[in-house]
Amino acid sequence: MHLSTRGHYGLLAMFDLAEHYGSGPISLKTVAERQNISDNYLEQLIAVLRKAGLVRSVRGAQGGYILAREPGSITVGDIIRAMEGPIAPVDCVSEVEPAECDQAESCITRLVWTRVRDKLTEVMDSISLADMLRDAENLSIAKKV
Amino acid sequence: MHLSTRGHYGLLAMFDLAEHYGSGPISLKTVAERQNISDNYLEQLIAVLRKAGLVRSVRGAQGGYILAREPGSITVGDIIRAMEGPIAPVDCVSEVEPAECDQAESCITRLVWTRVRDKLTEVMDSISLADMLRDAENLSIAKKV
DNA sequence: AAATATCTTAGCATTCCGCTCGGAATTTGT
DNA sequence: ACAAATTCCGAGCGGAATGCTAAGATATTT
């Protein structure tokens, strides 16, 4: 049950953009440095996010990336699906076009994986970038006290 | 969010053993054929389950494998941990010795992954092989009607 | 025109996956 | 005692994915 760095870095980058939402485009280099990711690599990852319609890009000098929608309407699930494909512990319970299996009807393990998948999507879809911003604020307040 | 075939096949094999719990040792070949897994490969996987203390082996003719404990006391979580290692979407929230990260204290994505991990373990630890046997029974009853 | 960015594609070393194979060790049955 | 059935163990291997690097094309601002 492991995510690749795609999903991991993808969420880091998106959260970084969320933290600076409203201040114009943020350059890839800035995000990469702040999040400690190779900018060459992040370049590829953010291309995926752009194609998925989660970020907008502004080319040229002073360009960069901006969230395509407000932080409240982008969830962790959106980001992970974009970066890692449909959420599914095993292929036969994939969210989209599940792999076929001749014993699917009577397969008990399939029931298990369905429950696991449902819990996964439930959590991931319930957390938005806005929720994370709120968490960040609470955390910094707690620290100051 | 994908399992490897290790976990997938591991659960299939364990459930197969659970279905025949109490009828003496089941040979690897039998399980492999019933579950449609290469027996050469399953041989390696079941070695892992044995080393994890989840199955007992009986060598020699008429030998095979038996669940080490009753089906009610073996959970999906036990099996997945044995086959795939500690449950963790990313290394910094691993159940055992999480990877260190200098920003761990203030990392918001880490909170997200912790919640995901907790949901994952919650589901997996709540389903035992006995539960699955019950599901199988309900399913076959439903079909007959 | 120069500087600053994104965009696109190619490549590449390493690791992991999913297996196959061969043979040693152990137990049962005849 | 011997043959058959089985687990046990380790080596190896092709293919795919991972996590990058690198280089140049394109667009925009100053």
Please name the defining characteristics of this protein.
homodimer; 145 residues; mainly alpha; Arc Repressor Mutant, subunit A; two-stranded antiparallel ribbon; 6 helices; 2 strands; DNA-binding
Quick overview:
The structure is a homodimer of 145-residue chains. Chain A is mostly helical and 145 residues long.
Order of helices and strands of chain A: HHHEEHHH
In whole angstroms, the N-to-C terminal distance of chain A is: 37 Å
Count of DSSP strands of chain A:
2
Radius of gyration of chain A, Cα only, in angstroms? 18 Å
The major beta sheet of chain A can be summarized as: 2 strands, antiparallel
The total of helices of chain A stands at 6
Most extensive interface between two protein chains, with residue counts: A-B, 34 and 33 residues
Low-confidence stretches of chain A: none
Topology:
Two copies of one chain form a homodimer.
Chain A: H1 5-19, H2 28-35, H3 39-51, E1 55-58, E2 64-67, H4 76-84, H5 108-126, H6 129-144
Antiparallel strand pairs in A: 1-2
Helix pairs in contact in A: 1-2, 1-3, 1-4, 1-6, 2-3, 4-5
The structure holds a DNA duplex (30 and 30 nucleotides).
Describe, in plain words, how this protein is organized in 3D.
The structure is a homodimer of 145-residue chains. With 145 residues, chain A is mainly alpha-helical. The first copy, chain A, has a single domain (5-144), classed as Winged helix-like DNA-binding domain superfamily/Winged helix DNA-binding domain (Arc Repressor Mutant, subunit A). The first copy, chain A, contains 6 helices and 2 strands, in the order H-H-H-E-E-H-H-H. Chain A has helices spanning 5-19, 28-35, 39-51, 76-84, 108-126, 129-144; strands spanning 55-58, 64-67. A two-stranded antiparallel sheet of chain A has the order 1-2. In chain A, strand 1 and strand 2 form a beta hairpin. In chain A, helix 4 packs across helix 5. Chain A starts with a helix and ends with a helix. Chain A binds a DNA duplex (30 and 30 nucleotides) through helix 3.
